[in-house]
Specification:
The structure is a homodimer. In chain A, about 40% of the residues lie in helices and about 20% in strands. Chain A is of the alpha/beta class and about 190 residues long. In chain A, the strands form 2 sheets. The first copy, chain A, has a 6-stranded parallel beta sheet, sandwiched between helices. A 3-stranded antiparallel beta sheet of chain A has the order 1-3-2. Chain A binds a DNA duplex (22 and 22 nucleotides) through α3 and β2.
DNA sequence: AAATGTGAAGTTGTTCACAGCT
DNA sequence: AGCTGTGAACAACTTCACATTT
């Protein structure tokens, strides 16, 4: 999608699997194979229509409407994430932060309200929040996750370096910065 | 490793594949199969010796000595990353930040020096830097990556939402926060 | 009895090779 | 001529089933 958006910006109307694969960092056959799972979109001899393909994918991904997200744990990392502009372009808005110490002095001014934890349940219900970003210390991550699940959150983006245990209908995505570095480090031993 | 460390803290000396798999979020057979690629470490009827297994993995992962890393792009996200404590425990130290505007006012005080871009090549050479964290805007990510590669950096942890093109001996790991959210969002449509 | 280690079976994912459109 | 779409071949990964060991 991001690659297609960039092509659109350049007013390129048609793209071959070869070209698109190159910029997306995958192999052409892979790309074609994957696309066929959703139907036929290309024109043989020509390639894919950028706008059409883009439309298809966004339909497939579901409602592209702005989705509200909350962030729990407004510490170092949380503050950076809550101020991060990159989410909005993709249809997500962090509407509020929650923290045990909502009044803690944060150097960056954050436009979203930072609320105490006990306001979380009502907020989630009232704003029909379905996803949360979890950037609390490891020691309390499971506990906070339990609260989120109990309030009806269905997806958690977990930045804490532990595996959190949730009912199977709840989806967790882990982002572990140390693991990413370790990974790199392992593969660059020469 | 992280799970084993936690078990060690609790002074648990022996663990079954079943238990370890549970806390690591994988399946027991998977875990056993994977471990056998490095040899036999378990005791049938008993399980794995936590210390021994831990030792084996750290040997396998290579030198656990502190590895110096630089961070390029000390903006919102970069500032959070450079102040993030989680890396040190895993053997990485961000030793310096680089930015086009090194003097830009940053609200958080950062203990590492923030240097101008033109100091980067010498710094990398002098400190034998092999890995870099790239948290610059998408528009300049490729350009900065080129500089890093030219200076001899072998691994890049890329936070910008574009695919960067590097020689194949250079390893890139991508972390894309918006993609993670999208992913979640896709799987929680009910 | 409890748990590992592992060949075999099963499943999923990737690439090839090329027929078939435009 | 160029490029897609796709069955078939291939490769990688996961799980099963159970012999084996403590």
């Amino acid at each position: 999608m991001r690659c297609l958006a960039r092509l659109k910006d350049k007013e390129i109307q048609t793209v071959s699997s070869e070209t698109l694969a190159k910029v997306a960092g995958v192999k052409p056959t892979q790309l074609r194979k994957d696309l066929t799972y959703f139907g036929q979109f290309g024109t043989r001899g020509l390639g894919y229509d950028v706008a059409e393909l883009s439309k298809m994918i966004s339909d497939e991904l579901g409602t592209t409407s702005l989705q509200p997200v909350i962030l729990v744990g407004v510490g170092h990392l949380g503050t950076a994430l809550i101020s991060y502009r990159g989410f909005e372009k993709e249809g997500f808005e962090i509407v509020a932060g929650f923290d045990l110490e909502p009044e803690r002095r944060r150097d960056k001014q954050v436009k979203q309200p930072i609320l105490p934890m006990d306001r979380l349940p009502d907020f989630v219900r009232d704003h029909k929040i379905r996803m949360a970003i979890l950037s609390v210390p490891a020691a309390v991550a499971q506990e906070v996750a339990n609260v989120l699940v109990r309030c009806g959150v269905m997806g958690i983006l977990n930045f804490s370096p532990i595996v959190i245990d949730v009912p199977e209908e709840v989806m967790v995505n882990n982002v572990n910065l140390a693991i990413e570095l370790e990974n790199l480090s392992y593969f660059i031993q020469d």
